[in-house]
Amino acid sequence: MLSAGGFDWVALTSPEAAAVYLEGWEAAGRPEGARLAVVGKGTGDVVRKAGLEPLFTATTATGRVMGGELPRIEGGTGVVLYPASAKAGTDLQQGLTEAGFAVRRLHTYDTRPVSGVPAEALAAALAAADVVTFGSPSAVKAWVGLVGLEAAKGVPAACIGETSARACRAAGLEKVFFPEAPGIDGWAEAVVEALGGGGGGGGGGGGP
């Protein structure tokens, strides 16, 4: 598919998605001509390490924003290739569809929670942790599934962005912190805020 082309953009919404795409790009013989669009700096950095330069980066690192901002290519096909996790949300697809693009989504990888974690290890983690960090909604679901809602509610949650914070709220967590602009730097600030014992409204002034 990469060699055949036929799409205007390749949309990459996470560092893992970028890494998996690059594996396929290598296997296809490094075909030229694909326009890479990335959701944020972290994803872009993965692409740049492979010697490629993204031609579009969303102003805010969310699929919703990316879908609304991705420019049309004059004379192009109007098709966006979206290699993604099987568990990825639909915000990007919806935004692209509303903007008039046709989206070709490929499930190139999956994320699965660990199982069989010793109870003593979970108890030790809960006892030692002052904050739990989440980089994806699937991580939230896995953590709550492992330790139980009541135990999870007792530890502040610092999220990489609004999407993970929404998952925390949906799961029933109350002390949730997240940056207005998703990314590693904002995530670190959310951790600091959570450690300060704030009320849990969310970094940048508000919950999801």
Give structural attributes:
single chain; 208 residues; alpha/beta; Rossmann fold; 5-stranded parallel sheet; 41% helix; elongated
Q: What does this 3D model show about the protein?
A:
By secondary structure, this protein is α/β, with parallel strands linked by helices. The chain has two domains: 9-109, Rossmann fold (3-Layer(aba) Sandwich); 119-195, Rossmann fold. It has helices spanning 15-27, 41-49, 63-69, 91-98, 119-128, 137-147, 149-153, 162-171, 184-195, and strands spanning 9-12, 36-38, 56-57, 79-85, 102-109, 132-134, 157-159, 176-177. Strand 7 (157-159), helix 8 (162-171) and strand 8 (176-177) form a beta-alpha-beta unit. Helix 3 (63-69) runs parallel beside helix 4.
Q: How much is the radius of gyration in Å?
A: 19 Å
Strand content: 15-25%
If classified by CATH, what would the architecture of the largest domain be?
A: 3-Layer(aba) Sandwich
Q: Report the biggest beta sheet as strand number plus sense, adding barrel if it closes.
A: 5 strands, parallel
Number of helices: 9
Shape: elongated
CATH class of the largest domain: Alpha Beta
Helix content: 40-55%
Number of domains: 2
Mean pLDDT: 86
Residue runs with pLDDT of under 50 for 5 or more positions: 198-208
Order of helices and strands: EHEHEHEHEHEHHEHEH
- SS content category: alpha/beta
* Total strands: 8
Helices, strands, pairings?
Elements: E1 9-12, H1 15-27, E2 36-38, H2 41-49, E3 56-57, H3 63-69, E4 79-85, H4 91-98, E5 102-109, H5 119-128, E6 132-134, H6 137-147, H7 149-153, E7 157-159, H8 162-171, E8 176-177, H9 184-195
Parallel strand pairs: 1-2, 1-4, 2-3, 4-5, 6-7, 7-8
